[in-house]
UniProtKB/TrEMBL annotation:
Pfam families registered for this protein in UniProt: IU_nuc_hydro
Record-annotated Inosine/uridine-preferring nucleoside hydrolase domain positions: 4-298
A single cellular component GO annotation: cytosol
GO molecular function: purine nucleosidase activity
Range of residues in the leader sequence: none
Species this protein is from: Romboutsia lituseburensis DSM 797
Keyword field: Glycosidase, Hydrolase
Protein name in UniProt: Purine nucleosidase
Single Gene Ontology BP annotation: purine nucleoside catabolic process
């Protein structure tokens, strides 16, 4: 099993990513850390607990980390994910289950006390940047780092050029690209925009009739309405589960190595600059994913989540 920390901001698609990870036998999820992004961090941590409850995984600890981006004011995405971050279903808090404080220290301690821990980051990179600032050496033990974020040849989703996670905390994102001792697997909008959970897939999920079917249907309804209102897309783009799927199976996305930096302010704030022509002559710090096998993803997603389904 591969040991992982999932750093996230749940969030509807973060929750789907957690469900996928927790139903994947290849992964041992050591803990979930949360920062502010889609919703303020403490609300995100509660949402992580709700998702853990759905798949009977409340033994996995949830830690709240940074509540604000490094320098910018916090801008959440509650228009996209709902006021509660889970599509305005306003589920009751999970009985007894509590999240812990100290997400940044959890990341550092886990790296220091284990070999070969990987991090899958599904939100702004604030927790990771803070952990790097506090104990860079701990990251020498890091195995792999996957970040859902950025955009290479595709329009942004927060500005013409910026993707949400890097736009919320551009300073955090840039710090991580400049300081992480490992190459970052950048699972950006180029690949995630191709992953759409359509109403017919949701209908299929309902026919499989598991507890998870109800949860997935409920949390995605608001998100589907948002996609229709904003972009006339039928269904919803689910970004974060692709990062988990790619971590498990490298054949799901393909890309190339490059130097990447993130624009910290100004009109292009949050843009991931991918030097694919090597103009800057800098050492590659990223693997930028550009192609995705969406059928492979969807079949993995459905098989993992719903035992008994086989394509
Ligand atoms: C990213 O932004 C968030 O709204 C999603 O959870 C995802 O991590 C996509 O840009
Ligand atoms: Ca997210």
């Amino acid at each position: 099993k591969r040991k992982v920390i999932i750093d996230c901001d749940p969030g509807i698609d973060d929750s789907l990513a957690l469900l996928l990870a927790l139903n994947s036998p290849e992964l041992e999820v050591l803990g979930i850390t949360v920062c502010s992004g889609n919703v303020p961090a403490k609300l995100g941590a509660k949402n992580a607990l709700k998702t853990l409850q759905i798949c009977s995984s409340l033994h996995i600890p949830v830690y709240v980390g940074e509540e604000y981006p490094l320098k910018r004011e916090l801008v959440t995405a509650q228009d996209t994910h709902g006021d509660d971050g889970l599509g305005e279903n306003f589920y009751e808090d999970v009985n007894e289950a509590k999240f812990y404080e100290g997400g940044v220290d959890f990341i550092i301690d886990t790296l220091n006390n284990n070999d070969n821990v990987s991090i899958i980051a599904l939100g702004p990179l604030t927790n990771i940047a803070k952990a790097l600032m506090k104990d860079k050496k701990a990251f020498n033990n890091l195995d792999e780092f996957v970040s859902m974020g950025g955009a290479f040849r595709i329009h942004g989703n927060c500005s013409p050029v910026a993707e949400f996670n890097y736009w919320v905390d551009p300073h955090g994102a840039d710090y991580v690209y400049k300081n992480l001792p490992k190459k970052i697997h950048m699972v950006g909008l180029d690949v995630t925009r191709k992953i759409v959970l359509t109403p017919n897939i949701i209908e299929f999920i309902n026919r499989l009739d598991k507890d998870m079917s109800k949860y997935i249907t409920e949390i995605t309804r608001f998100y589907i309405d948002f996609h229709w209102d904003q972009e006339k897309i039928i269904g919803c783009v689910i970004n974060d589960p692709l990062a988990v799927a790619y971590f498990i199976d490298r054949n799901i996305c393909k890309g190339f190595e490059s130097f990447v930096e993130v624009v910290e302010d100004g009109i292009a704030m949050g843009q991931s600059i991918v030097d694919s022509f090597n103009f800057y002559k800098k050492e590659n710090n990223a693997i930028v994913l550009t192609d995705v096998d969406k059928n492979k993803f969807m079949s993995m997603f459905l098989k993992r989540m719903f035992n008994g389904y086989d394509d």
